[in-house]
Fold this sequence. Notes:
By secondary structure, the chain is an alpha+beta fold. It has helices at about 20, 45-60, 110-120, 135-140, 150-155, 190, 225-240, 250-260, 285-300, 315-325, 345-365, 390-410, 435-445; strands spanning about 15-20, 40, 65, 85, 95, 100-105, 125, 160-165, 170-175, 200-210, 210, 215-225, 245-250, 275-285, 310, 335-345, 370-375, 380-385. Helix 11 (about 345-365) runs antiparallel to helix 12 (about 390-410).
Amino acid sequence: MAKLEQLRDLVDAGGYLPAEAVAERSAGIWRADHLEAGALVRPRNTDEVARVLAWCNEHGVAVVAQGGLTGLVHGADAAPEQLILSLERMRAIEAIDPRQRTATVQAGVTLQALEEAVDAQGLLFPLDLGARGTATLGGNAATNAGGNRVIRYGMMRDMVLGLEAVLADGTVVSSMNHLIKNNTGYDLKQLFIGSEGTLGVITRLVLRLREKPATRSMALVAVEEFDKVAALLKHMDHGLGGSLSAFEALWQDFYRLVTSPPAKGRPPVAQDYPYYVLLESQGASRELDEARFQHALEGAFEAGLIADAAVAQSEADCQAFWALRDDVEQTMHGGLPVIFDVSLPVGAMEAYTQALPAALEAAVGEHWLFIFGHLGDGNLHVIVQVAPEYYERLRPKVEQVVYEPLEAVGGSVSAEHGIGLEKKPWLGLSRSPAELALMRHLKETLDPRGILNPGKIL
């Protein structure tokens, strides 16, 4: 689009890429295609973002904001006539306040960069994802990222104290609050957290930090029945007095996949059990914390909740345990995966997961099913692998089998990945007509011309 050339004057040198340069860029994690867009702009600050959005609003040009492109629901896909607004050059960590325990950052800062910066000051930013090296904090906020330690620290929404966002018309809404308690009217930042760039573009954030744990204790345990998995969650959370930071469940097929060649991982415990749980506790005193962790594990053995266990003896062991859980790429060998992140009550999980194999067999025939996830916060990752030549035809049937049962149990079609384009047809299973109507009204109010990430979510 020739008129997009006018945007060159709104950003600094190197801030504008034409369509042919955009087409050389990857479309994102685990994707073989490349970006499409009429152009891509790379602002360095909020003022440049505001100028670009004001121009786009005036000229009716649709804008798709992008961070690290680690999303899995096609929430940052752009069309050839649209503009990509990339936050990749807004990577400044503006301030870390050890006393207030806050970090002020631009939206393009990667999660790992912040984790390392605050770690050097004895602090912790507790969000943790497998894509930590690429995912950006603005993208984490725009999608309300969850990750591995939600059971203790909550979602990204719980870690954002304040933010700055630019509306579709270029208006800058700066609410850079540094206080944990600030009960002064509407909490406007919540409009933008989880909105996937459809209501405004997040440019800066104030994030809540925690004191860095001095210790962590980990074990990978085998469990013989799902009821015992649920009981183990309650037992460990109670026994650890609030220090349980991760409770990751692995169903047998996934555990075998990541502990057998060609995977690099090896089984810390035998592969013969139906369920495995990765337990992590973070604390402040090695002697006391290890004693408490060991006592809780022994209690679980005595209660018959655990059949076998491997307890980490070093930091290397802890990293090896997490490497098993994070080795999701193994599900991509031998077929194409349809990836889901659903949420449902723990009490409904056994019936739900046990019904999936037969339902999938009836709907699509031959398939491979892998289940794992952050069970401690109700989130399961369900991955269904099918033969590549049947992928496009079978995908809608797989989605129907996975999503439809969630409505009856009050589940969610998205626990943490967002909606994007991929889950939009199924949003009505988790949201009422009144909720959807209010979402549309908010969209129309804040973005009346519909230029921000059009077609996503709604």
